[in-house]
Amino acid sequence: MKSENREVMRNILYAVETGGQVYGGKQYDNFTPAYTNSQAEHAITIGAGAWYATEAKRLLIAIRDADPDGFNKLDTAGIGKDLDTAVWSTYKVDKGSEKAKCIVAIIGSETGIQCQDALMEQQIREYEKSITERYGTMPDGAMMECINIIHQGGSGALKRILAKTATPYTAQTIYAALCTDPDDKSNNNQVGDYTTRQKKVYEMISKYCKEETTVAKTRNAVVSLAQSWVGKKESDGSYKTIIDIYNSYTGAFPRGTKMQYGWAWCAATWSALAIKLGYTDIMPIEISCYYLIEAAKKMGIWVENDAYVPKPADAILYDWDDSGSGDNTGTPDHIGTVEKVEGSLITVIEGNYSNAVKRRVLEVNGRYIRGYICPKYDGAGSSSGSTSNGSAGSSSGSSSGGLNKTEKWSGTVTASSLNVRTWAGEENAPCSFSPLKNGTKISVCDSIKDSDGDTWYYIKYNGKYGFVHSAYISKSGSGSTSSGSAGGSSGKPSYKVGTTYALAADALRVRTGAGTNYAAKSYSQLTANAKQNAYSNGCLKKGTRVTCQEVKTVGSDIWIRIPSGWIAAYYQGEKYVK
Hints:
This protein is of the alpha+beta class. The chain has helices spanning about 5-15, 55-65, 70-75, 80-85, 100-105, 110-135, 140-165, 170-180, 195-210, 220-230, 240-245, 265-275, 290-300, 530, and strands at about 30, 45, 50, 300-305, 315-320, 335-340, 345-350, 360-365, 370-375, 410-415, 415-420, 435, 440-450, 455-460, 465-470, 475, 480-485, 485, 495, 500, 545, 550-555, 555-560, 565-570, 575.
């Protein structure tokens, strides 16, 4: 980082630790006894940087080394002896004790203040070095967010947050990931639970970081936050956090009205996204769908055409009284946030959908669409699998820019009974001609990823179309074999048992068997070595070295077994393992 940004970082950490969350605020003579903030804090915390336990010892030793005579003069309670003999991981003294008063005098001295600034500078450089070594270079603002996280929650917290942060890393994308933390129940190190602290840190970075004077406002941040709210509902009261975010707005409320818990809250959900991310300059806020459209018109971001193909993070508004004939110009009844567009289908995340935050899937130019709010984001940052033009990997022969409807190759059903669904994903309804029996011949026209990242084929059978999981279709004339090696013909790579390879793809899933129909393994199910090279969701990182223990060909794909499970080595014509 730039030297001036290290100073900014020091001021930010001081502010949130002991300075009342005011930039420039600090308390050099801070003394906090054990267990004051948490029953897990078994030792004292001291200084402007809130140095705890052995870090408190580190600070006091630095002061003693810098000015031995001054330290000894102030040490009237045997602190020097404690530094040499006591166990500082559990060092406890009462705030009113002579030892506590002595420590306050030492850290509040001129040398004590100088050593605190020097120690914080040293720690910032240490954090910066370790972060760069593990996650690579990044803008100063992003580095400052990472330092804030690691200083508060340690390297484990940082690893978990970055695993769900959109790349390239920026202060804004990391903060967006932090905003999802309160709903993450997978661990007990929720740095994001400290919402006020994280918001203040982000605001200070945005204001004082010399490199990031403006912070990009991206579609991905909106979609990621909306995804984190899915499942909030009225029945357990969890939806109230959305209402509370809206009511936390510090500006003038539209029409001077705050939300009430008993009111319809779809518009408030869209508005809460804007307020939480600080996007109110590009996203209109309101608690009324009608007035949201009026506000969007004033901002020049209202799209009246209900046949428009939206982008992720656009808002879609509905009129349930739409006749289905001509362009819908009625009064809006509901609103949602576009999550993705695949083929001719739009996936929307909506608040107050059957009293909860849920997903809806509908056709482009479908009935009830009133229009769209299209904020002028700084970057696309669209979520994985989404498109802006309605295309889902289509080629020649596609219909209206959607999925390809002409045969690419002929396939055979390998399952005893295979469900054909209306869209990719097991949560979607079966088609009228489902299921298909083993051995049925079908035409594969296109492929698409479901919400879990698994590949589904868009097939044609007797003139009708639907989606089937790719694991249960083999190319006509191909089969499934298991041996000590596979590949080496038709341009496929060759893999051998006992050979060590490197992953050429990032975030590769480990499964319980050879094929996407098998369950993905969690982080806790991996071997100790694999955990060192995996994200918190259990996916392996690019460059991870793996040893092949078994090889299996599934259709046209090659899977290999490694100590943690099965991974796709060659999949859909791409080499994931080299």
